[in-house]
Every structure is written in structure tokens, then in C-alpha cells.
Amino acid sequence: MAHVVVLGAGLGGVAAAYDLRAALGKDHRVTVVGDGPYFNFTPSNPWIAVGWRKPEQIRVALDDPLGKHGIAFTPVPAQSIQASDKRLVLVDGGVIDYDYLVITSGPRLAFDEVTGLGPDGGFTQSICTGPHAEHAWEAYEAFLSHPGPMVVGAVQGASCYGPAYEFAMIVDADLRRRKLRHLVPLTFVTAEPYIGHMGLGGVGDSKGMLEAALRKRDIRWITNAKVTSIDAGMIRVDQLDDAGHVHRSHELPHSYAMFIPAFTGVPALRGVEGLTNPRGFVVIDKHQRNPTFPQIFAAGVCVAIPPVEVTPVPTGAPKTGFMIESMVGAIVENIKSAIDGRPAEAEATWNAVCLADMGDTGVAFVALPQMPPRNVVWIKEGKWVRLAKAAFEKYFLSKVRTGNTHPVIETYVLKLLGIRPLKGERSAK
Questions:
Q1: Strand, helix or coil at 428?
Q2: Active-site pick, 209, 354, 366, 400
Q3: For the chain, which residues score pLDDT lower than 70?
Q4: 354 annotated active-site
Q5: If DSSP codes are grouped into helix, strand and coil, which group holds residue 414?
Q6: 302 is known as an active-site residue
Q7: 160, 169, 323, 348: the active-site residue
Q8: CA 413 vs CA 245, 364, 417: distances in Å
Q9: pTM of the complete model beyond 0.90
Q10: Sheet hosting strand 352-357, strand order edge to edge
């Protein structure tokens, strides 16, 4: 009997656990190790931060649904991985041995890399976690009583730009509904070399579409931005030119600010020779497997992916939801192969599918594969995207509650779009 441990209970971890249980049957053990008792639907955090959702609407207590599928659940985060001994040490001193480890831990939020960044001891808000989004809402409620300048964006080294754009446009829409927008100068600050770069070198005409969207909403922007320091009333930004030299320095007053930070690997992954790169992200081969420790697989934000291109201010490559599901699919196939004594063959396609709310409309993009050059690229704008994202939220939360991670309708829709989770699968004609 093999024991497969999944480290992380987010989008990738929960999907991996259910898929592993379905693929391996009851003859093998599956355990999930999470940081707390809940699954939180992270894509909805921007809505939490402006009061459009309540926390309880986007989270699921995992003990019961996982238990119904025979999946053990430990809501205690890991302290370290003893990879040579195939052992996970928890922060409470507990120890879990494994035959195979699937790391879906998400990132450490590197607020410490910019002075004054972050909600814990800093002067900016975050929407990267459920608790951070709740704190952002509390700060936003106070801001509404005393509105003033607002700054939103993503700092140097960030690799997740979509939520920053979403939040800027959602808060614009919310302030207009409250008849307060005229009191709030709004500036978007990003490490990207141009609007719509997204850490992907652009997707279709994302530059033109998102620039038009910002103009329409009276949101000014600063690109190639390196945030140097933040205090209670001022954000200092150096704007670089294409050669990486300081072109202009900005001092931006703010009454409210939200920034996406750079990510690193979580502390439990650090210090294991051969497991991670210098930033703490897990090194993997084309089968999602670590070359040094072949019993360890990884998916999602914790995976080491090089930037798409060199930019004047460092930008990272994002790992979108469907890309993570694609990674998980390959991991499950390859662990099953290993248990059956067969070589790993499954490879994830790393396709990108994204739905972004823009307050009163939305943007959807597909990049197949995520990294250029691509076979398929399209980007569409419309109110239907907002409806689609809201529907997907309810749909995915239902999947978490029931354990049905790949319903027939999802598979059919993806095939109609020509989107394949694994390399070698045939698209529907």
C-alpha cells in the first residue's frame, strides 16, 4: 500500500487529492496537509476586499468532504521536508511519512522585499489570501469614510498580475456605485514593461484592450515600476527605461494601497539541496517530478518556471488555474504509473485560461500553451465574462464539496475549446 501525501489544500491540492483517490482506488492512502481547516477560493478574494462577497461564501471546511472520500486531512502546516527520509515534519512536531509527496503549497508572500509593503507591519493591503482579503475589506470600509488617493498594482518580481488589474477596476466600479469615485485619484503601478504584459509577453491584444479599459475608468498608470519604499502616506517609485536606468522617480500619496508582492517558496521547502531553486521554488522535470527526489512532484505557484523574457524590472511568469489543473493531471497519471511499476509518461500542456472581472464587464483570455510561441491566442471582453466567473466560482466550490473534480460538462466544454490538460490527448473535432 502506497501513501501519497499532498502538501497544500488550495486549488491544486484539493484537486490532486480527489484525483489521486479516484485513480488509485481504496488500496492506497491519500493524506492532505493544509494550513488551517478551510479551502478558500482564491480567485474571489478581490470581491471579498470590496464587500461583494462574504468570507463564508467562498470557503469550504475540508474535513468532512475529504473524509467522505477516504482522504485523511491534517490542518497543520509543514515545518520542513526531510526528503531523503521521505518524511514531512509539521509545525506542531507531528511527523508524516510518505511514499510519494505532491507539493501544492502555494507561495510565501515576500512583503519583506520592499520596505513598508504588506498588511502585517506595513502600509498596503493584499488580496493573496483569504485573511488578507478580509483585512483589505476592513481597511476599505474605513477608507470609504475618508476617501483620498488610491494606488493599486504589483511590485518588482511579482508573477500574478491579473488580480491587480481586477482589483483596480472592481474598486473603480464600487466607488462609482457609491458616488465617491470623484474623490479618489487612482493610479495603477506595475513592474510590467507595458500594460497587459501579464508576465506572459502579452496575450493577443491585451496591451490595447487593458490600456483602453484603464483610460475609460480614469486610472493613470506607471509601468517599468520599481517600488522603493512605502510609508503611511507616500509610495516611492522609480520608473525605469528600457535599458534599466531610472527614467523618472515618483512620489505617490495614498490613503489606501493594494499591491501584489513577489513570491518565494514557503519556508518548509527551503534548505533541501536539490529540491528548490534559490527562490525556494520546486525544480521539476517535464513530468512534474523533482529530478533529485523522484518521489516528489509539484504543481502550481510553488513550481520553478523561468520568466518568459528579460524585462527592465523583474517580472515572473504566472501559474493560472487551468495550468495548475493540467499539472495535477500529469502528476496523478505519473504517480499511478510509478505505483504500477511503469515509467512516467504524462506531461502537462501548461495551457492558460483566465476569467477576470473588471467591475462592470470582464476579460477572458486563452493562451495555448501559456509560454510563447503559442498555437492559440485569443482575448475577449464582455459582461458575459463576469457572469462566467461567478458561475465558475459556485461550480468549483461545488466540486470541492462533492469531490467531483472533472464533471462531464467541464470536460466537454474544454474539448470544444480545443483545450487539453495533458500532452498527447486528442482534441475534439
A1: coil
A2: 354
A3: 321, 405-429
A4: yes
A5: helix
A6: no
A7: 160
A8: 47, 15, 6
A9: yes
A10: 352-357, 362-368, 376-381
